[in-house]
């Protein structure tokens, strides 16, 4: 019996790589066969996923898919991205790494409501918000907030979430959204102030941070890691994989390791994954077209 390969379109040590490596041993135990993780970085995961969708649909090749790769890139570069939501089958969602809304530690803005109030009272674009790039998952949720609240920010691109956090710490930005692993240590140290979470539920590791939904704005954003098999995989094989990974993701040891690494497990079954992907594909596609970024 040959091993199951899980293709990760990002380098070793990143959120997608760590998410599957946290759970693969527990899943392999339940499947009774070895799982091998293969890193194939390039083009934000698109190159590896383009190859994955052409793999034999026999259950021996799986892949990790992420928010931007699946719901943003197909709209931004339709010629390079060879897949659409119907070209792969979701097994489970492994993790969801939410963006955290942060402001400088000494900012007079202490809550999300105060941020919105300040933006409404200020000239349009006065508040500077850090993003990794225009059209990225650090940018699009703020565009949603702008539309919902009738406000306007000025977006300042940065090379990474880590660079964004540094700018917030230095008081060079009024606010920003950064992924959890990049900012968790600074939140705990009090170097920045977290005023909201772009997620449906609070985090077990940082329970004091309220979600934006709690505060009246239903916007989710971050980096989910879902596991897929190629279209055409037999239902019995897909069912076996779903069962094994469901059990593994509810293993207390797996959950504890994930929380310690600030990569929280958020299990979704195949149908819930499909609904989330379709929703985000439509939302992000509309935003990308509105921003004039579609190609």
Concise account of the structure shown:
The chain is an alpha/beta fold and 295 residues long. Helices cover 40% and strands 22% of the residues.
Topology:
Elements: E1 4-8, H1 15-31, E2 35-39, H2 46-52, E3 61-66, H3 67-71, H4 73-76, E4 88-104, H5 112-121, E5 128-131, H6 140-149, E6 154-157, H7 161-169, E7 175-179, H8 180-189, E8 192-197, E9 222-230, H9 235-249, H10 252-260, E10 265-268, H11 270-290
Helix pairs in contact: 1-9
Would you kindly provide a written description of the structure presented here, covering whatever features stand out?
The protein is of the alpha/beta class and 295 residues long. It has 11 helices and 10 strands. The radius of gyration is 19 Å and the shape is globular.
Key terms:
295 residues, ten-stranded mixed β-sheet
Number of strands: 10
Q: Percentage of helical residues?
A: 25-40%
**Secondary structural class:** alpha/beta
The whole-angstrom Rg is 19 Å
Strand content: 15-25%
Question: pLDDT average, as an integer?
Answer: 94
């Amino acid at each position: 019996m040959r091993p199951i390969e899980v293709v990760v379109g990002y380098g070793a040590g990143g959120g997608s790589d760590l998410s599957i490596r946290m759970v693969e041993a527990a899943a392999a135990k339940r499947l009774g066969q070895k799982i091998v993780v293969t890193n194939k970085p390039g083009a934000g995961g698109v190159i590896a996923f383009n190859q994955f969708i052409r793999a034999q649909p026999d259950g021996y090749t799986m892949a990790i898919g992420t928010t931007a790769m699946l719901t943003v890139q197909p709209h931004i570069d339709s010629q390079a991205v060879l897949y659409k939501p119907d070209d792969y089958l979701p097994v489970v969602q492994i993790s969801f790494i939410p963006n955290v809304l942060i402001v400088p530690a000494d900012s007079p803005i202490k809550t999300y409501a105060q941020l919105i109030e300040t933006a409404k009272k200020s000239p349009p674009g006065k508040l500077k918000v850090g993003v990794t790039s225009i059209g990225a998952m650090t940018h699009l949720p703020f565009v949603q907030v702008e539309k919902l609240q009738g406000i306007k920010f000025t977006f300042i691109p940065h090379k990474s979430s880590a660079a964004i956090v540094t700018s917030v710490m230095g008081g060079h930005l009024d606010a920003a959204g950064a992924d959890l692993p990049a900012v968790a240590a600074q939140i705990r140290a009090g170097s920045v102030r977290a005023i909201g979470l772009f997620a449906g539920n609070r985090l077990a590791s940082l329970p004091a941070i309220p979600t934006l939904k709690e505060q009246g704005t239903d916007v989710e954003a971050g980096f989910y890691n879902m596991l897929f098999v190629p279209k055409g995989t037999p239902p019995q094989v897909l069912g076996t994989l779903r069962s094994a990974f469901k059990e593994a993701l509810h293993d207390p040891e797996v959950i504890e390791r994930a929380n310690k690494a600030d990569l929280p497990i958020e299990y979704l079954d195949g149908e819930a994954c499909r609904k989330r992907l379709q929703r985000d594909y439509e939302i992000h596609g509309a935003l990308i077209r509105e921003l004039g970024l579609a190609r």
